[in-house]
Structures are given as C-alpha cells and as structure tokens.
Design goal:
heterodimer, A: alpha+beta, 3-stranded antiparallel β-sheet, 15% strand, rod-shaped, B: alpha/beta, 3 helices, globular
C-alpha cells in the first residue's frame, strides 16, 4: 500500500486517532456497562432473594392466617349454633310451659266428675258468646236443664249411682253440642246448661226436644220418678243481645223458665216465645197487642210488698222492676203509631211477660193460703179494662186454684193460661170486647187475651197489678 | 347409677366404671357458673378418651343456661374428639328440637330417642 499524497496520510492518521478514541470510549463504555450490569445484577439478586424471603414469609403468614380464620369461623359457627340452640330451646320451653298452662287453665274450666265445662267455664263462655252475639246481632240461646227428683235418686240409688247418672246425663247433653261453639256445662249440682250461639228459639227448642228424646231412649231407671226413668226439666231462653241487657239476663230468663218447667210438673221444656223475653211460648201464641199513640206505658204495681217477685226484665232500653211497691213505667213514650214489627213484638212480649209473672205470683199467693187477692188492671188507651181476679180465701179454694192450674198445664199448652172470660171492661170501654174479666173469684186466677173484634188487635197502654193481703 | 350431684329439683347420676351420665328432674340453675359442677361431672365422664353417654330421658326441664352448658360440653367433646352419645325422649317437648341442634354442633354426635 502506498500513500501518494501526504495529506492522505494525515487524514489517515487523524482517522486512526479518532478510531482509537472511539475504541477507547467504547472500551470505557463497555467497562462501565459491564460494571453497571454487574452492579444491577447484584442488586437484582439481592432483590430476588428479598422477594423470595418475603414470599416465604407471606406464605407462612397466610397459612397462619388461614388457620386463624378457620378457627374463628369454627367458633363463629359454634356460637351461631349455640345461640340458635339456646333460642330454639327457650322457645320450646316456653311452648312447653304454655301448653301446660293451657292444659291447667282448661282443667280449671272442666267439671271433674262429668267432664263437661264447669261453672267457671260456663261463665267465661257465656260472656264471650254474649259479646260475640252483640256484635253480630245473632240470637244466643241458653238451655238450662235440671234432673228431676235427683235427691230421691240419690236417696234411693246411692250417691255413686247418682254420680253415674250425672255423668250419663252430662255425656248426653254434650253429645248435643253439634257445633264447635256449642257448650255443655254443669251449672251446679244436678243442673246443666247448654249454650247455643247463633241459634234461634226454634232451633234451640228442636235441640231440646231431641235431647228429651235421647234421654227417653237412654231410659236411665229412676225408682223415685213417676216416669220410672230419669227425666229433665228444661228452661230455654233466647235473646238477641242488646244493651243494657247482659249475659246474666239470659241466665236469669232460662233459670226462671226452668223453674216454670219444674212448676209445670217437670219433664218438660219451657221457653221464651219471643227472643229476649221470658215467658212460656203458649201465651204469646194468642196474644196480639200493637202499640199505638205516644202515651204508651206499661205500669206494674205491687201492693203490698210482702211477696216481691224480685225480677228484673230488660230489653232494648225497656225495663221493669218487679219489686214490691216499686212502680215502673216501661215501654217509653217515644213509641209512635208506626212502630215497627219488632217494637210491636216488644210490647206484646212485655205484656206476655207480665202475664206470666202475674200467674207465678198468683200461684205463690194461692199456695200461701187464704187472704190473698190479686187484681190485674189493663188499660187500653183512654178506656181501661180491668182484670179482677182472686184466688180463694180458703184452703179449699187454694187447692182448687192449684188443681185448675195443673189441669191447664196438663192440657193443650195453648190453653195454659186460659181462664173463664166473662165481664166487660172498666169505664164502659169494652167496646172492642178485646179483654174480658175473670170474675169467678172463687175459682182461679187466670186470663186470656182475646181478639174479639174479628181481627182487630189489642192496644195496651197500661198494665197494673195490685195485690192486697195475702199470707 | 350413683348420684354424684343432687339438687332440690334435679340429680346427676353416673354409672360407675363407664362414661354414662344421667341428668334427671328439672334443671333451673342460674347462669353457667352454677352449672359448672355439672359441666365438670360431664367432662370427667369422658376422661381417658372414654365414650360418653349422656342420658337426658329423665330431664323434664332445662333452662337456657343449662342448654348453653350442654352446648359448650358438646363443643369440647367435638374438639377433643370424645365419642358422645345423647339419649333423649320425644315425650319431653324441648328435647326433640334442642338435641338435634346439639348434633349440628357435633356431626359425629350419636343421638338416640326413646
């Protein structure tokens, strides 16, 4: 190789120097890079190691944490189960006690001998059913039953047999509870009650007749009974509850009717004719009274007060107290000429009720012996018609009276209260001839309301009963 | 059965040489503290890994503290892997539901109803 020009040589020398410089630079850079790389590699190694350590530590921590979480979860589950166990256990125990309480409560309402409701159960039931009927305006019937001649039964057959008799009768009455709300109860002694919600008088009477029939078929021997078997006297009262009457008005009515049934010779059913009023059904059958005018009142007076009836009659705001000299006006004056059929029934029942009470009272006087005189005054608007009657003043007359009543009661019930009707009304006002007076003082005290005017109804404005003497 | 604890309304009885313990009567103790002696009696029945039979058929009433004590005992048995059998009766209303709940705490618990 030859250099033809020194300038070329210089150029080559400069280029060589530059290349050598570049080489040196590159070597320096390479050295630097290598050293830097080593440093970085070393740093990375350290970092990797640290990371590995950290990963290991974290895995260990995680493992410990998992174990802890598992333990805590187990405890949490245990606690939840324990809480649930305790809660449900408490509920079960509560239910156990509640059941026992209910059973004990139920037992306190059951008669131990007959297994029907006892008086406590009956009281609670009639209160409940009365309130229910008050809201629903449905009739509520109560049948009171009493085993006839039960004392004689016990005397002749012994008390164990008496208990069996009570059990049998209670079972029979219980079998006549056809609906869940019907309730048979031992009211006391040999007296039972059958409470019949949402049952009208006819329905309850049919049930009473079925009970009577069942008892007949059962034919429990009763040596002391004229029928030779156990029989029941029954009083059936029905009311559609209305203030201010209360459940004990229903009880009193049924009890009074039971008394009537006893008086009528036992083994019979006496019931209210109209719901809410107490009287044997037969009187109302022929009693037609319609309220009229704004002066209506029914007035009852007893004088003297030697034998108060001690009755209280209430219905739909109309009330009467039968207490000695107490004079009560009932059927208030707001009754107008267009009184509803219900109101008319009320008037009719009120008079019927009084008639019934009078008869009972008269019987007492009759039984009391000589000296009693009972008069009943019925005033028809401006005209008055007086019932004037008296039982006899002698024992013989009293006996005749009793025989008369017995005869009536043994016959057609429709004729139960019929007396001999003769004279006309007071004040010459018997134009309608609706009511006549039993004047046969020596025979009986009884009366009949007659519709003597070919269909006209009687308008009763005042009833007064006077009693003189007696006992 | 030997009576190990007797209260006014309850007793704790244990069959000698076995892990059988019977609770009887009405248990109405006040709080876990008062139940501690009974819990101890239950624990002792399961010492040495003996299977424990807990007879509750005669236990008519058990209050909330009592079921809590039983729950704790069942958890201890589970954790200690002590074989446990509980004998109850369906004639006592609370046992049906509560004893099944104890079984949830310890799936290996053997539950027998008479």
């Amino acid at each position: 190789m030859t250099f033809r020009d020194p300038a070329d040589l210089d150029s080559l020398r400069r280029r060589l120097a530059a290349l050598e410089q570049e080489r040196d630079d590159l070597e320096a850079a390479l050295t630097t890079a290598v050293e830097h790389g080593d440093a970085i590699e070393s740093g990375l190694d350290d970092m990797v190691q640290r990371l590995r350590d950290e990963v290991r530590d974290r895995m260990q921590a995680e493992s410990r944490l998992e174990a802890l979480v598992t333990a805590i979860s187990q405890q949490k589950n245990d606690l939840e189960l324990v809480v649930r166990t305790i809660t449900e256990h408490s509920d079960a125990i509560d239910m156990q006690w509640l059941t026992r309480y209910a059973e004990a409560e139920q037992l306190t309402r059951i008669d131990g001998l007959t297994r029907v409701a006892n008086r406590r159960g009956f009281d609670a039931a009639i209160d409940h059913e009365w309130q229910r009927a008050l809201r629903s305006r449905q009739p509520l019937s109560l049948l009171m039953c009493d085993i006839d001649h039960f004392k004689q039964y016990n005397d002749s057959c012994g008390h164990p047999a008496g208990d069996k008799c009570l059990i049998a009768v209670a079972r029979l009455i219980g079998e006549h509870c056809r609906r869940p709300a019907d309730l048979a109860a031992r009211y006391g002694g040999e007296e039972f009650a059958l409470l019949l919600p949402e049952t009208d008088s006819d329905g309850a009477h049919e049930l009473a007749r079925q009970l009577e029939e069942s008892l007949r078929e059962l034919a429990l021997p009763h040596p002391g009974s004229p029928h030779g078997r156990v029989t029941l006297s029954m009083g059936l009262a029905t009311m559609v509850p209305a203030a201010p009457a209360g459940p004990w008005d229903l009880v009193a009515a049924a009890d009074r009717l039971l008394y009537n049934a006893k008086q009528a010779g036992r083994n019979t059913i006496c019931r209210t004719h109209e719901e809410g009023h107490s009287m044997p059904s037969t009187v109302g059958d022929f009693l037609e009274i319609e309220p009229s005018g704004d002066t209506e009142s029914l007035l009852l007076r007893f004088s003297p007060s030697s034998v108060p009836l001690k009755q209280r009659w209430r219905n739909n705001g109309v009330s009467a107290d039968f207490l000695g000299d107490y004079v009560t006006t009932f059927l208030p004056s707001e009754v107008d000429a267009e009184a509803s059929a219900a109101r008319q029934a009320e008037v009719r029942s009120a008079v019927s009720f009084i008639a019934n009470e009078l008869l009972e009272n008269a019987m007492k006087y009759s039984n009391a012996g000589p000296g009693a005189a009972v008069s009943m005054h019925l005033h028809l608007e401006s005209r008055g018609i007086v019932f004037q009657a008296s039982n006899g003043a002698t024992a013989e007359q009293a006996a005749r009276f009793r025989a008369f009543v017995d005869e009536l009661r043994a016959g057609d019930p429709q004729e139960m209260f019929i007396g001999r009707l003769e004279a006309g009304g007071e004040n010459g006002s018997s134009g309608l001839g609706l009511l006549t007076i039993l004047n046969d003082y020596d025979t009986a005290l009884a009366w009949r309301f007659e519709n003597g005017d070919g269909g006209n109804v009687v308008v009763t404005t005042q009833v007064r009963l006077d009693v003189q003497g007696g006992r | 059965m030997e009576v190990v604890i007797r209260g006014d309304t309850y007793s704790v009885e244990r069959q000698a040489g076995t892990g059988t313990v019977a609770l009887k009567g009405c248990l109405r103790l006040n709080g876990l503290q008062e139940y501690a002696p009974i819990a101890d009696a239950l624990r002792q029945a399961g010492t040495d890994g003996r299977p424990v039979v807990l007879d509750l058929r005669g236990l008519e009433f058990l209050n909330s503290s009592g079921i809590a004590m039983l729950s704790k005992f069942v958890i201890e048995a589970r954790n200690g892997e002590v074989p446990l059998t509980i004998v109850g009766t369906r004639a006592v209303a609370w046992q049906t539901k509560s004893l099944i709940n104890l079984q949830r705490l310890m799936p290996a618990l053997a539950l027998e109803f008479s």
